[in-house]
């Protein structure tokens, strides 16, 4: 009878994810309100990288522009929060000579429209971009460079439209959400648990997606797109769809992030944040869904702890972590469980062989 192996159970992404969620649910009992707020931000990042793993880990499309979609969702929610905090024309608009709200600010005063727009606008932008790039078979490094260029264009546009976006200062001074005070610890805890609920929903949606026939097609695109195309599949539409799904998840994460941080600016959607998102996926283990979640939470936790303990040299510590993972764990942290499983499997196999030798000794 096969011996119980922890590694075998942990390699099942569902069970490992459930354990992680139970730990996150229990955290408010152990941590201060400040730490819970920080962990809530990391959960928003974890939601983001699940969508990014769909695109890069399963489909093989590397995007360095997901900060755009994350930032769009955050800005849309920030507009709603700003209007709820102080109805009327914001101060920075008056300073720029605008005495009447822009039409999209008026529309986003409705919370339901703001939530839908925070998901649909990034999806629409990704669909347009993906359609014209993937249909023209722009891929690999060329697509990656294109997404980086889009980041530069978008951040420049937001900064230049200071009269409606707040420019480099961004949007801040949010006081309430749906009538509840954002500074109240109980409100932040509710947002924290909502973030966990959304994390669970997004993870299992993507888990079902990747374990379906559609998910197998995504893996086939990653491993041999030309072969799949010659089999009669329109691979470009698969990539457009998954790019849009990934962007919508990023927009959703951006909305949750701005609720807990209380500010959004162009620096949060630039090239550096977009690259960091890729690092979280790589550190956790791409193509696993649960790996990027762990990578995002652990990396950001380490970033906070290092910066608090060693404010002058914390970047060296963080860089050392990245180097160690890349050199010794090229498959990410999830490859540790794979190694444990192989070791356990090897031990079990050797035990079976020894029993066979005892029962049937060779002459």
Explain what you see.
β1 and β2 form a beta hairpin. The longest helix is centred in the last third of the chain and has 27 residues, at 235-261. The protein starts with 5 loop residues before the first helix and ends with a helix. 75% of the residues lie in helices and 1% in strands. The protein contains 16 helices and 2 strands. The protein has helices spanning 6-11, 13-26, 33-58, 66-85, 91-95, 103-107, 111-134, 140-160, 162-165, 185-210, 213-230, 235-261, 271-284, 290-309, 314-328, 334-359, and strands spanning 176-177, 180-181. The protein is an all-alpha fold. The relative contact order is 0.17. α2 (13-26) runs antiparallel to α10 (185-210), α3 packs parallel to α10 and α4 (66-85) runs antiparallel to α7 (111-134). The protein has a two-stranded antiparallel ribbon.
């Amino acid at each position: 009878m096969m011996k119980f192996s922890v590694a075998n159970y942990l390699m099942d992404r569902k069970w490992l994810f459930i354990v992680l969620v139970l730990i996150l649910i229990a955290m408010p009992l152990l941590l201060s309100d400040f730490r819970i707020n920080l962990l809530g931000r990391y959960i928003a990042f974890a939601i983001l990288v699940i969508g990014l793993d769909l695109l890069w880990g399963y489909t093989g499309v590397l995007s360095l522009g997901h900060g755009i979609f994350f930032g769009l969702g955050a800005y849309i929610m920030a507009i709603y929060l700003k209007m709820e905090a102080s109805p009327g024309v914001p101060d920075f608009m008056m300073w720029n000579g605008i005495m009447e709200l822009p039409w999209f600010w008026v529309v986003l005063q409705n919370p339901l429209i703001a939530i839908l727009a925070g998901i649909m606008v990034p999806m629409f932008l990704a669909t347009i971009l993906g359609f014209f790039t993937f249909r023209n078979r722009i891929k690999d490094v060329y697509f990656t460079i294109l997404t980086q260029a889009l980041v530069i264009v978008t951040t420049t546009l937001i900064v230049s439209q200071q009269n409606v976006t707040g420019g480099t200062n961004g949007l801040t001074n949010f006081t309430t959400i749906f009538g509840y005070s954002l500074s109240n610890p109980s409100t932040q805890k509710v947002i924290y648990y909502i973030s966990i609920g959304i994390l669970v929903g997004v993870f299992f949606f993507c888990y079902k997606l990747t374990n379906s026939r559609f998910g197998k097609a995504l893996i086939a695109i990653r491993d041999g797109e030309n072969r799949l195309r010659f089999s009669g599949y329109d691979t470009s539409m698969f990539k457009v769809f998954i790019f849009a799904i990934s962007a919508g998840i990023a927009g959703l994460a951006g909305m949750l992030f701005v609720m807990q941080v209380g500010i959004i600016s162009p620096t949060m959607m630039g090239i550096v944040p977009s690259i960091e998102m890729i690092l979280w996926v790589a550190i956790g283990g791409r193509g696993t869904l649960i790996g990027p979640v762990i990578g995002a939470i652990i990396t950001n936790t380490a970033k906070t702890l290092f910066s608090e303990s060693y404010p002058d040299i914390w970047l060296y510590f963080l860089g050392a972590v990245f180097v160690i993972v890349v050199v010794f764990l090229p498959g990410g942290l999830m490859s540790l469980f794979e190694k444990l499983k192989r070791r356990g499997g090897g031990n079990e196999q050797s035990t079976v062989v020894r029993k066979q030798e005892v029962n049937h000794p060779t002459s």
